[in-house]
Amino acid sequence: MNMDYFSQQIEAGINNSKATVTGDGSKFEAVVISEQFSGLSLLKKHQLVYATLNEHITSGAIHALTIKAYTPEEWQAQQQ
Protein backbone atom coordinates (compact mmCIF):
# COMPACT_ATOMS: atom_id res chain seq x y z
CA MET A 1 0.00 0.00 0.00
CA ASN A 2 1.19 3.47 -0.76
CA MET A 3 1.15 6.54 1.47
CA ASP A 4 -1.77 8.08 -0.42
CA TYR A 5 -3.91 5.11 0.60
CA PHE A 6 -3.25 5.74 4.30
CA SER A 7 -3.82 9.48 3.86
CA GLN A 8 -7.17 8.75 2.21
CA GLN A 9 -8.15 6.39 5.04
CA ILE A 10 -7.54 9.14 7.60
CA GLU A 11 -9.36 11.76 5.53
CA ALA A 12 -12.35 9.44 5.11
CA GLY A 13 -12.50 8.79 8.86
CA ILE A 14 -12.04 12.35 10.12
CA ASN A 15 -14.40 14.98 8.74
CA ASN A 16 -12.88 17.82 6.74
CA SER A 17 -9.35 16.69 7.40
CA LYS A 18 -6.17 16.94 5.39
CA ALA A 19 -3.69 14.15 6.01
CA THR A 20 -0.17 13.55 4.76
CA VAL A 21 1.44 10.21 5.52
CA THR A 22 5.11 9.53 4.93
CA GLY A 23 7.33 6.62 5.81
CA ASP A 24 8.92 3.42 4.69
CA GLY A 25 8.40 -0.22 5.45
CA SER A 26 6.08 -0.34 8.42
CA LYS A 27 7.09 2.92 10.14
CA PHE A 28 5.03 5.98 9.28
CA GLU A 29 4.41 9.60 10.22
CA ALA A 30 1.01 11.20 9.77
CA VAL A 31 0.40 14.94 9.81
CA VAL A 32 -3.32 15.52 10.16
CA ILE A 33 -5.12 18.86 10.15
CA SER A 34 -8.79 19.02 11.10
CA GLU A 35 -11.26 21.37 12.74
CA GLN A 36 -12.59 18.25 14.48
CA PHE A 37 -9.53 18.42 16.77
CA SER A 38 -10.69 21.70 18.32
CA GLY A 39 -10.95 21.42 22.09
CA LEU A 40 -9.50 17.91 22.19
CA SER A 41 -6.49 16.78 24.18
CA LEU A 42 -3.46 15.44 22.37
CA LEU A 43 -4.46 11.94 23.44
CA LYS A 44 -7.98 12.29 22.00
CA LYS A 45 -6.58 13.64 18.72
CA HIS A 46 -4.27 10.64 18.45
CA GLN A 47 -7.07 8.23 19.29
CA LEU A 48 -9.15 9.63 16.42
CA VAL A 49 -6.31 9.09 13.97
CA TYR A 50 -5.49 5.60 15.30
CA ALA A 51 -9.15 4.61 14.92
CA THR A 52 -9.04 5.36 11.18
CA LEU A 53 -6.03 3.07 10.69
CA ASN A 54 -6.81 0.42 13.30
CA GLU A 55 -7.17 -2.50 10.87
CA HIS A 56 -3.73 -1.73 9.39
CA ILE A 57 -2.15 -1.42 12.83
CA THR A 58 -3.65 -4.69 14.10
CA SER A 59 -2.67 -6.51 10.88
CA GLY A 60 0.92 -5.35 11.28
CA ALA A 61 0.96 -3.36 8.04
CA ILE A 62 1.70 -0.33 10.21
CA HIS A 63 4.16 -1.17 12.94
CA ALA A 64 5.00 2.31 14.20
CA LEU A 65 2.97 5.47 13.66
CA THR A 66 4.00 8.95 14.71
CA ILE A 67 1.08 11.37 14.69
CA LYS A 68 1.15 15.14 14.50
CA ALA A 69 -2.44 16.37 14.80
CA TYR A 70 -3.39 20.04 14.49
CA THR A 71 -6.42 22.26 14.22
CA PRO A 72 -6.16 24.61 11.22
CA GLU A 73 -5.19 27.43 13.61
CA GLU A 74 -2.48 25.31 15.28
CA TRP A 75 -1.14 24.31 11.86
CA GLN A 76 -1.04 27.95 10.72
CA ALA A 77 0.89 28.93 13.87
CA GLN A 78 3.27 25.97 13.34
CA GLN A 79 4.09 27.18 9.83
CA GLN A 80 5.20 30.65 10.97
Notes on the structure:
By secondary structure, the chain is α+β, with helices and mostly antiparallel strands. The chain has a single domain (about 5-80), classed as GMP Synthetase, Chain A, domain 3 (2-Layer Sandwich). It has helices spanning about 5-15, 40-60, 70-80; strands at about 15-25, 25-35, 65-70. Strands 1-2-3 form a three-stranded mixed sheet. Helix 1 packs across helix 2. The longest helix has 18 residues, at about 40-60. The model has no long low-confidence stretch (mean pLDDT about 95).
Low-confidence stretches: none
Radius of gyration over all CA atoms, rounded? 12 Å
Instruction: Report helical residue fraction.
Output: 40-55%
The largest beta-sheet arranges its strands as 1-2-3
CATH homologous superfamily name? BolA-like
The number of distinct structural domains comes to: 1
Topology record:
Elements: H1 3-13, E1 17-24, E2 27-34, H2 42-59, E3 64-70, H3 72-79
Parallel strand pairs: 2-3
Antiparallel strand pairs: 1-2
Helix pairs in contact: 1-2
In brief, what are we looking at here?
With 80 residues, this protein is an alpha+beta fold.
Task: Looking at this protein, list some descriptive labels.
three-stranded mixed sheet, single chain, 80 residues, GMP Synthetase, Chain A, domain 3, 3 strands, 3 helices, alpha+beta, 46% helix
